[in-house]
């Protein structure tokens, strides 16, 4: 009798252990989280039902120790815990920021503070927070050139723009960094180097919450809307949840309320916005699988490849599309080609005798059966071209993963993005096939 109860006890323990692994492994016993919680408590943060945990699919996040109902408060973080430009001005950097002309941007002020505090190490008042920040990021600005070249063309272009932005920010801030020399024993050139700025920029770009501050004379005119929120920034994104987040003037705390339910011991998610995977990768350095907002973008080069250069009206058609903003944001989604993509293709497919109807095309009118059919045929061709291109890139990625051990994490990210693209394109191909049968 006892024996069997021991076995079922073991079974139950094993099942419980497995379940806890599926849900997430509690990390609140780790020293960095113990120190962070104590630091937050000293600043007025009341411990609630959230525990740091490691999840098998999302990595680090927060789990709840009680079931959450709609309109429950997830977290309330006192103003004292938030890192804002106000924090920078009240630090030893403040007088240097206020003196500098032309004024620095709120973004540079925050970057400078993060770099200086990280450099201060044990002496930093923000050390418990800095210790739990990621050491590296996977935003496009941090990706190796070989990896960036595997991104879809529209995202590749934005990744290059992001790199330029950070580089220009670094170059334009060098003189300001030099002015801080009296605060440092080492040369400011070694403290505020490019990789330090890249890390600080990514920290702010991926982790800040939106919080409007009044315009200060000592900053440039860029909007001052950033706040870093320790502990709260461990909450991961899901496109399938809804939350309400804002700074509460009465309680002087930043609060997040849930509009979704969450079971006990499950990961608590918030939503960063209805972003597709390209935007998520660009801004936050991750992608989510089965993202309902995801799209595959069609570049204007790909679009125009299927139309004869001999078409006398070709240039006029391209001008019309450009003037009416129909050469950007042309996509395939889970529900097939977007209305914008079909409209652009319909206009390009207009026959010489139909060209005068271009305004009606932009309004969504049917011009002729021939135009409709040609549009569907070309849309299907573009879809298949993008499918082949995506499969080719996936093959390249799997070869690189074998040869370049150091790029595995970055390659896995691009692979996840491309696999999701492939699923969307396959779904679109099916939809187009059905439409073709119908017409």
Automatic annotation (TrEMBL):
<dbReference type="GO" id="GO:0006954">
    <property type="term" value="P:inflammatory response"/>
</dbReference>
<keyword id="KW-0963">Cytoplasm</keyword>
<dbReference type="InterPro" id="IPR015353">
    <property type="entry name" value="Rubisco_LSMT_subst-bd"/>
</dbReference>
<keyword id="KW-0808">Transferase</keyword>
<comment type="subunit">
    <text>Forms a ternary complex with TBK1 and ZNF268; the interaction with TBK1 is ZNF268-dependent and leads to TBK1 monomethylation.</text>
</comment>
<feature type="coiled-coil region">
    <location>
        <begin position="390"/>
        <end position="420"/>
    </location>
</feature>
<dbReference type="GO" id="GO:0140945">
    <property type="term" value="F:histone H3K4 monomethyltransferase activity"/>
</dbReference>
<dbReference type="GO" id="GO:0032259">
    <property type="term" value="P:methylation"/>
</dbReference>
<dbReference type="GO" id="GO:0005634">
    <property type="term" value="C:nucleus"/>
</dbReference>
<dbReference type="Pfam" id="PF00856">
    <property type="entry name" value="SET"/>
</dbReference>
<feature type="domain" description="SET">
    <location>
        <begin position="48"/>
        <end position="273"/>
    </location>
</feature>
<comment type="similarity">
    <text>Belongs to the class V-like SAM-binding methyltransferase superfamily. SETD4 family.</text>
</comment>
<dbReference type="InterPro" id="IPR046341">
    <property type="entry name" value="SET_dom_sf"/>
</dbReference>
<dbReference type="InterPro" id="IPR001214">
    <property type="entry name" value="SET_dom"/>
</dbReference>
<dbReference type="InterPro" id="IPR036464">
    <property type="entry name" value="Rubisco_LSMT_subst-bd_sf"/>
</dbReference>
<keyword id="KW-0175">Coiled coil</keyword>
<keyword id="KW-0395">Inflammatory response</keyword>
<dbReference type="GO" id="GO:0005829">
    <property type="term" value="C:cytosol"/>
</dbReference>
<dbReference type="Pfam" id="PF09273">
    <property type="entry name" value="Rubis-subs-bind"/>
</dbReference>
<dbReference type="InterPro" id="IPR050600">
    <property type="entry name" value="SETD3_SETD6_MTase"/>
</dbReference>
<keyword id="KW-0489">Methyltransferase</keyword>
<dbReference type="InterPro" id="IPR016852">
    <property type="entry name" value="SET_MeTrfase"/>
</dbReference>
<protein>
    <recommendedName>
        <fullName>SET domain-containing protein 4</fullName>
        <ecNumber>2.1.1.364</ecNumber>
    </recommendedName>
</protein>
<keyword id="KW-0949">S-adenosyl-L-methionine</keyword>
<dbReference type="InterPro" id="IPR044429">
    <property type="entry name" value="SETD4_SET"/>
</dbReference>
<keyword id="KW-0539">Nucleus</keyword>
């Amino acid at each position: 009798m006892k024996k069997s109860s021991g076995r079922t006890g073991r079974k139950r323990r094993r099942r419980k252990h497995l379940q806890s692994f599926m849900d997430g492994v509690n990390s609140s016993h780790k020293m960095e989280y113990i120190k962070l919680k104590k630091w937050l408590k000293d600043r007025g943060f009341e411990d609630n039902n959230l525990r740091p945990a490691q999840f098998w699919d999302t990595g680090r996040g927060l789990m709840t120790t009680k079931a959450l109902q709609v309109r429950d408060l997830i977290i309330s973080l006192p103003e004292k815990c938030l890192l804002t430009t106000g924090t920078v001005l009240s630090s030893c950097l403040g007088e240097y920021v206020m003196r500098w002309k032309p004024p620095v941007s709120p973004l540079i002020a925050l970057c400078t503070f993060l770099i200086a505090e990280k450099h201060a190490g044990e002496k930093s008042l923000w050390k418990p927070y800095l210790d739990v920040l990621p050491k590296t990021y996977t935003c496009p600005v941090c990706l190796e050139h070989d990896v960036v070249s595997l991104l879809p063309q529209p995202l590749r272009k934005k990744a290059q723009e992001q790199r330029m932005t950070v580089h220009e920010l670094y170059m334009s801030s060098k003189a300001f960094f030099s002015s801080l020399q009296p605060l440092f024993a080492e040369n400011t050139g070694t403290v505020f180097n490019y990789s330090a700025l890249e890390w600080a920029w990514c920290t702010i770009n991926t982790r800040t919450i939106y919080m409007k501050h009044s315009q200060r004379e000592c900053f440039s005119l860029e909007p001052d809307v950033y706040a870093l929120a320790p502990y709260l920034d461990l909450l991961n994104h899901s496109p399938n949840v809804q939350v309400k987040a804002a700074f509460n003037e009465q309680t002087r705390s930043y609060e997040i309320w849930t509009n979704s339910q969450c079971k006990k011991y499950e990961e608590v998610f918030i939503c960063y916005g209805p972003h597709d995977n390209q935007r998520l990768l660009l801004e936050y350095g991750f992608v989510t699988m089965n993202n309902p907002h995801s799209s595959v973008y069609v570049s204007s080069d790909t679009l125009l490849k299927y139309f004869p250069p001999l078409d006398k009206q070709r240039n006029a058609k391209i001008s019309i599309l450009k003037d009416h903003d129909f050469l950007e944001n042309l996509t395939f989604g889970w529900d097939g080609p977007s209305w914008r993509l079909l409209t652009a293709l319909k206009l390009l497919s207009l026959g010489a005798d139909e060209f005068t109807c271009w305004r009606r095309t932009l309004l969504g009118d049917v011009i002729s059966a021939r135009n409709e059919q040609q549009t569907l045929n070309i849309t299907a061709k573009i879809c298949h071209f993008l499918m082949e291109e995506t499969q080719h890139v996936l093959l390249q990625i799997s070869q690189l993963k074998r040869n370049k051990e150091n790029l595995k994490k970055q390659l896995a990210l691009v692979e996840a993005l491309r696999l999701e693209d492939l699923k969307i394109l396959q779904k679109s191909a099916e939809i187009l096939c059905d439409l073709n049968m119908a017409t």
